[in-house]
Amino acid sequence: MFKTAGVCFIRRAFSGLSLVCLAVILGACAHPPTTDSGEPESRVFENVASKSTAELYADLIAPAVFERSSSKVIDGYTVESGKLRMPDKSEGALVTVRSVDGSLTALINKPGQFGSLHVDSKGGSQFISEPETNTDFEDAVPNPNEQVATAPVDSAQAEHFVVDVLMGYSKAGVDRAGGDAHADALAKIELVNMMLRNSLVDNVSLRLVGIQVVEDNYPITSETLGGLRTIFAEGMAKFEPDVTYGNFAVDIVPGGVIGMGWMPGRSAIGASNRPSTFAHEIGHNAGSHHCNDNGVNNYRFGYFNGKSRSILCKGPNSIYYSTPAVLDQYGLPLGNAVTADTARVWRENAARLSSYAPPQSPPTAPGNFVKVRSSANTITFGWNASPKAVRYEIYRVNVASDPLPKKIGDSTALTFTATSISGEALYFVKAVSFIGLVSVPSNSVVARP
Ligand SMILES: [Zn+2]
């Protein structure tokens, strides 16, 4: 089933920007390679929290119009995405992740402008460019232990599958991605969900179920890919993901490796400041190859129609997986039902991709909830960790006046101090998972300051 050509790599071919660099190296051109290195461009927004998201990215997308196709609140972040439409009808895409403190991570894919915008809560802003890259070399690692699914899916009756994704990072990888791993992870997940929508794949979507940041950085190699479950063992046990993606700091050089993924499979790795690489590698996890150069009778390939490319066929800034069901701006199909239909691969492999791990379940209740100490009007409580918890909610029940429990606080630690307390009341704690599933209550304690 697989062309087991061995482990190869994804590399940068010569994009337009790289040709500028090459010209500089050869002394043929005096222009400095200002944007190819990913050097951030900085500016500052005043009163950033009062600014609309659109005000923050307006300069970067002009003169394109944002055609928003999704907006939702996830983990406290507002996540939006859609296409960018240029006056000449050419298209790109925009993904925005806005936090309550006003900070913004935006993936901007406009013709001629490809990268990520990062605005922090103080208004400091930088744009990290993501130069176009091609994928001339095989970065998809054949996986002899797994089979790509090929059972036809009736999209009219299809069940919707959710693929739970753990985003793993090295510390250096977080810095390269702009500094906010949570926002970056949500942006990458939404990028793929938007591309699935663009490609008319409606029976599968990705969901972020956890983030783990590790101290060490790792190179993009088959050893790192093979060891991913060890590197992120803690996160895999805690968050029970179907798919794990490793985001690492990679010094990108022409011809260098920027990502690798099993094909098919449940894990991949890539340069953390390249969201398009995540979309590319997870397409390999789904079971699709690059370009069907020989036109073989196999639909599990990306596509180049002479004008437009899909993401797996040397189209890093494409916003599509190959599909014959969608036409590009030139009226040409973005796939071929016989030779290039990655959208079909996604539909057929949705059940496999979503079933590596059991469905997400609530954390167990925290054990050993106790009063630790008290003062004139405070009480400090402590409890034992619940393995899947990312935070805890503390409740108070004023038994005498109101039997309904009231939440009095959150804690990410294993203690909580209730303040401004008088009189006797009953207290307990609940554990909350990354996606917000809540445990049953712990044992309760009746206490007074
Ligand atoms: Zn690839």
How would you explain this protein's 3D organization?
By secondary structure, the chain is an alpha+beta fold. It folds into 3 domains: 16-38 and 130-353, Collagenase (Catalytic Domain) (3-Layer(aba) Sandwich); 51-122, no CATH class; 370-447, Sandwich (Immunoglobulin-like), CATH 2.60.40. The protein contains 9 helices and 22 strands. The strands form 5 sheets. It has a 7-stranded antiparallel sheet with strand order 1-7-6-5-4-3-2, with helices on both faces. It has a 6-stranded mixed sheet with strand order 8-12-13-11-9-10, with helices on both faces. A 4-stranded antiparallel sheet has the order 19-18-21-22, with no helix packed on it. Strand 2 (65-74) and strand 3 form a beta hairpin. Helix 4 packs across helix 8 (275-286). The chain is globular. The relative contact order is 0.11. Zinc ion binds next to helix 8.
Gist of the model:
With 449 residues, this protein is α+β, with helices and mostly antiparallel strands.
